[in-house]
Amino acid sequence: MPNISRSGPNRRERRRNAKLARRMVAAAVLPMVAVPTFPSQAAFAAGSTPPVYSLAATVAPAPMTLADCNDPTCIVAPAPSGNDDYPTLNNLILLAAGRTVPAVLDAANNVVTPATTATVFLGEGTYRVGKVLKLPANVNLRGRGITATTVSMITANNVNFNYASIISWDFNHQIAGATSNLVSDLTVNGNCREGAGQPVPSDMPGRPGEFCDFRGADGKAASTNSGGGVSAGDNWTVRQVRFTNLEYFKVWVGNGVTNVRIVDNRFDNWGGAESGDEDNVGGGSRNDGVIVEYNQFDKTIRGNSFDFTNAIRTTVRNNVVRSDGTIATARKDKSLYGNMYFEGIQQAAVTDNVLWGAQIALKSNSLYAHSGENKDITNPRDSIVSGNRISYSGETGISVTYDDYKDGPNASNLGQPGSWTDKSTPTDAFHVVRLGGNNVVRDNVIEYTGRSGIMVNGSYASAKNAADTIAGNVVHNAGWGGSTVYDSGAGYFDTAGIGLSIGVGDQVYGNTIEDDPAKKTTWYGIDLGARRASTSPTGTVLTGPAGEVNTVNNVIGTAYHDQTKISEPVTNLAAGGKVLNWDEAYPLDGRPIRGYRIYRDGNVVGDLPIGSVSIPNNIMTADESNFENASAGTAGWVAGTRTTLTRVAGNGSRGNASMALTSSGTGEVSFSGRKINVTPGQVYTSVLSARAMSTAAAGKQVRAGVRITFANGTTQKWATSNKTAIDSYANWITSYYTFTVPADAVSVEPWYLIEGTVAGDAHLVDRLGLVAGTRTEQFTEANGPANAVYHVVSYTADDNSMPQSVVVP
Asked: I want to staple 368 with a disulfide (CB 3.0 to 4.6 A). Which of 195, 374, 433, 607 is the partner?
């Protein structure tokens, strides 16, 4: 059993279920999707050019040559034997260790004399190893080039690589002081596909998505965690190494390891190779000061390009990632891959990376099992994400998420605030939460994301206690090929350039958000708040210190979208031919619904103040439903107590006339229609629109309902109890009531009332209806294109609701 406190990545097996849960949270979304598409890759826009993957070095020096290996600290390995080269290489590594000299430190641990390192220099060809090559401190392993030298796992010995890497630091034999190790200029091949992985460019793995050969056809012949690439120790540099064909983590930096540089490496599955879905650069476990730079990740990779959990002072810069939905589809696995996850990391710098089809996410570690290092929660703090270019992310381009969990006897206590150095013990009845905030997201270019460009959210406001800054970013075409509305896991967002649902005094300024004019996909510039969220942003600052403002061009809705001012969305939207039908939206307190808008390709093709001119499948006649026919007057309607009915010309909700209800006393006004035969057990909806005729009369509750007559001759009046349907002098509002006809009912009469009136109050009513079912609104674009996607919203005086979507054949 390895030394868990300073060993390889054993903990990731314990986190696997939580990792899947995290992905499920991300995937259990899109209840209202614009166009069902593969979630990790939006359709490419014309002229889009993905980054090019190349094995050529970017910043690394030329590989070592035989002439360079000319002193006793450099040992030349013999050529590969074709058998197990582990005994030979291990002996050379131990020989090299004997030629190293530790660094000399003073009393303050400052380096007086650097360590003397020794190198094992590998020749051309493939060295096959049946055990892990463990490098003691100050021992280097170098090849003759990324395409010339390969170290490969012997799959028959896969049990020796369980939870282990092919090349690893020797965590059982460490020495104190300024050590130095270098692994460079070679390929690490895990033989997931036996004999595959040659540096031959390819667009697809040989057998995408199948189990590694040594695991057998059913995947049970060997561990899912066998054969990682390199596990780095303190002060290691991993440079110009190609990682391919690996089942387990490609690079691992964990368990308190410090000052690692992972630079100019390559990650792919060329030459018929494939890999397991573990991360390419993974780790955490309170590692410190890791730099990941100038690496390239090909579209054939699997797993996240980067994923650390519980780390500090991490730098990820100048890396290039390409993720391709075509390959994920071929693998029959729609999980996102290529992403960069910073989970429970503070003081991170994520700069100048290029991501194609992938995202950057800063978040807490709360979605892992709450034990071990993940008992305490660390939220993102003091980090900067800048200068990155993100294209075609299937989800949000850059996200920052704050979270916690409840524990204690009744699972009711959030964590006790603490710093990076504060920890709870396994026996404590509480956990520590390290609060987040003071993160900066600036000067990034984000284009064609499946969801919003930038999103900041969380489940508990207390998890964040410092303001973030989102400034100078450029977001193009958010929502491209993806969702119009999505569940972030902490509330529903509309697709926007920037979404914010948590924080006090966050600064959002100087950003440019724009969409293509022909096919707009971005609903809003900046979305403030989320629906059904437990948190909300307050005091958000939308102007910079030098007066910088946000620029929003050509979005579908408005520059700013305030979720506290929107109505409920429409429901039950359906298309029959060219005709759209939907239910009335439910009005919220203080947010009366003014009408409905219909969009196609991001452009308004219909605006229905109050609602559609006619109510679909209305059982009432036209004269009963509206009052356009002067000769009919108010025929068919019977006034209730204290009520006088009068036809009024020139005051219709959608026409030229309506009916006035005038009160002769205090209480309510009401009226009812003719008896209508209905089907017992059938669902019906009664609906009307109303408006006060004066400011004095305004502010009354409008209730749609029915009077039911039973077989025994008794009657009952049923009506909506929604107290938010309040009429006004300025605008019409609609009230509706959906009910199921009782089994012993004989007939129903439409019945409507307005409560709280006084003598002289007068209210207009119009657009009356009784329909079988629930849909009371409709729209038709007779000349609309085939297979068009329509979005329908309800709107208040201030803003649109979340859109609902439907495809019209």
From this structure: 374
Structure tokens at 594: 């003014």
Spatial neighbors of 460 by CB under 8 A, at least 6 apart, are 402, 403, 404, 414, 534, 535
CA-to-CA distance for 655 and 646, rounded, in angstroms?
Answer: 16
Contacting residues for 686 by C-beta, under 8 A, at least 6 apart: 704, 705, 706, 736, 737, 739, 750, 751, 752, 769, 770
Q: What is the pLDDT of residue 566?
A: 87
**pLDDT value for 16:** 36
Mean pLDDT of the chain: 91
Using DSSP's 3-state secondary structure scheme, residue 462 falls into helix
How far is the C-alpha of 393 from the C-alpha of 339, rounded, in Å?
9
Residue 10 predicted with pLDDT over 70: no
Task: Provide the pairing of β-strand 595-600 with 574-576.
Answer: unpaired
Give the model's pLDDT for residue 42: 53
Beta bridge partners, 140, equal 119
**Paired residues of 296 in beta bridges:** 266, 320
Question: What does the block give as tokens for 459?
Answer: 């489940």
For residue 299 the two structure tokens come to 């579209």
CB of 626 closer than 8 Å to CB of 652: yes
Is there a contact between 464 and 400 (Cβ–Cβ < 8 Å)?
Answer: no
CATH class of 622-772: mainly beta
pLDDT digits (tens, 9 = 90+) for 503-521: 999 999 999 999 987 788 9
In Å, how far from its chain's centre is CA 628? 50
643 vs 646: CA distance, rounded Å: 10
Residue with token string 């090349």: 167
Q: Closest Cα to residue 496, out of 488, 389, 599, 504?
A: 488
Each residue's pLDDT tens digit, 429-465 = 999 999 999 999 999 999 999 999 999 999 999 999 9
Segment 598-621 mean pLDDT? 92
Rounded Cα distance, 582 and 573, in Å: 4
What's the angle, vertex CA 306, arms to CA 302 and CA 309, rounded to 5? Answer: 120
Inform me whether the pLDDT recorded for 703 exceeds 70: yes
What pLDDT sits at residue 787?
A: 87
Number of residues that make up the chain = 809
- Bridge partners of 529? none
**Four-CA torsion 211, 215, 218, 220, nearest 10 degrees:** -130
For residue 774, give both structure tokens.
């629930």
Checking if the pLDDT of 38 tops 60, the result is no
CA gap 624, 542 in Å, rounded? 51
Which residues are registered as beta bridge partners of 322?
A: 356
605 near 744, Cβ under 8 Å? no
Give the amino acid at 773: G
Residues 6+ positions from 368 with CB-CB distance below 8 Å? 15, 18, 19, 22, 309, 343, 374
How confident is residue 28, by pLDDT bands cut at 50, 70 and 90? very low
Phi, psi of 159, deg, nearest 5? -60, -25
What letter does residue 87 receive in the DSSP assignment? H
Decide if pLDDT at 809 tops 90: no
Helices (H), 589-699: 622-625
Report the C-alpha gap between 257 and 7 in whole angstroms: 10
Q: Which amino acid is at 435?
A: L
Residue whose C-alpha is closest to residue 234's, from 345, 107, 137: 137
Give the C-alpha separation, 213 to 193, whole Å. 6
* Domain range summary for the chain, segments of one domain joined by +: 1-31+293-313+323-394+402-444, 59-278, 448-469+477-565, 566-614+778-808, 622-772
Question: 566-614+778-808 and 622-772 share one CATH topology?
Answer: no
Structural domain 566-614+778-808, CATH architecture: Sandwich (2.60)
- The helix (run of H) or strand (run of E) holding residue 325 is helix 325-330
Q: Which two tokens stand for residue 429?
A: 């009845």
Alpha-carbon dihedral sign for residues 13, 18, 23, 27? positive
CA dihedral 195, 199, 203, 209 (to 10 degrees): 30
603: nearest Cα among 498, 693, 517: 517
